[in-house]
Amino acid sequence: MIQEISIEGGYSMPTYKDILLYKLVALPLTISSALYRWGRWIYKYRIKKEDYTEEDANVLTMSALSISPKRWEVFL
């Protein structure tokens, strides 16, 4: 006797409503994080006139060259 077994599991593709809900919940955190980083950058490097750290110089270089962090690791 042959039985049909469903091995699909309980996973289903998310709907646009699920994704939209997640994005709306995450939006305040994303915005506040970006504002904090931007404000910190302005304070440290424009107001206090500190020298760039090596990590921050790398971020500026990656941004100017449009290189992803994974690709940047190849150069280091």
From TrEMBL:
GO biological process, alphabetically ordered: protein folding
Transmembrane stretches, start-end: 20-39
Name by which UniProt lists this protein: Uncharacterized protein
This protein's UniProt keywords: Chaperone, Membrane, Transmembrane, Transmembrane helix
Subcellular location per the Swiss-Prot or TrEMBL entry: Membrane
GO CC term (a single one): endoplasmic reticulum membrane
Domain of life: Eukaryota
Matching InterPro entries: DNAJC25-like (IPR044632)
PANTHER family named among the record's database cross-references: DNAJ HOMOLOG SUBFAMILY C MEMBER 25
